[in-house]
Amino acid sequence: MHNIGGYFELEQPKVAMWQRPELHRLTSGRACLTAILQHLNPKRAYVPHYCCDSVLLPFEQLGIELCFYPIDQQFIPCKLPSLKTGDVFLWINYFGICSDVKEQLIERYCPEQLIIDDTHNLFGFEPSRHYAFSSLRKYFGIPDGALLCAPAAQIYPAPASARSIKHNELRAAGFTQQGYELYKQHEQSFDCTVSEMLPLSQQLLKQVDMLSVQLTRQRNFDYLHQRLGQYNQLDLPSRPVSPFCYPLLADKAIDRAELSRKGLFVPALWSDVETRNQDVPATELHLAQHLVPLPIDHRYDEQQMAVLATAVEQLLQT
Ligand SMILES: Cc1ncc(COP(=O)(O)O)c(C=O)c1O
User: Fold this and answer.
1) Would you say which domain of life the source belongs to (predicted)?
2) Model confidence, pTM
3) Using a 6 Å CB cutoff, which residues line ligand 1?
């Protein structure tokens, strides 16, 4: 039994989530997924239609049969399959707002048959008895980085390979457009090799005030929800632990090019869905074409969120 109260013990440094010894620090989400699949060695995988091609790459490279499953407009799998021996189920915690579904999946499937993609749920990600990963590069200006939870697996990653940070340097020097071209090349350089996170990325992460990053994301999410919630067809939780963006699905298409002309950059998640050689269900096509993931990260405060919300409102009202 632990005593409660009494005199203070020596202070212990609080280990940041990404430094937790139970987690493996690898180079990318793809590397984490590959390491999980190499360990579980499934024959067949259930994967969602609504995802990017980089999620599918590890399965394809390992010759694992893919069985695509549909989700509804609240990102919930329409039907949970009965898994046979040799099957795994890949689930994505979309935008960090689906953690309730995670609980149901954990109840339903054994840990060796469930792979949790918490790429969008970094601050809700923690060591557990489940196979899970999250990609750090999507949150910070670091050259690489991902966290892998693989409780029963022996992972022997290759040493980190050098990566250029020229795009970050150019951006810091004000050459954003030139940096963007290099950034795209940098993103193309990721493959499924299971290698370690670069020491530079780990060093840079030590300088980040993680709590402040998380709180800023939550605050920005709340602000955009107050301003734009009336237009949003998604049923969003009021205070998600780790929102990745503010996902907005309005009944009217939002012209991303028009936003970009105003210097407001919103990615398309995921154009791969539209071009994939599959019978993609209407819901997933609609999400891929119309959902706009508005940025809410720690670079922005309420003032910038107000500019973004106003620009989106203008587009919705015209
Ligand atoms: C939901 C999701 N999971 C995994 C990945 C792959 O992560 P990485 O680019 O670090 O390999 C991505 C990439 O965009 C993603 O969107």
Assistant:
1) Bacteria
2) 0.94
3) 28-30, 52, 54-55, 92, 117, 119-120, 135, 137, 146, 190
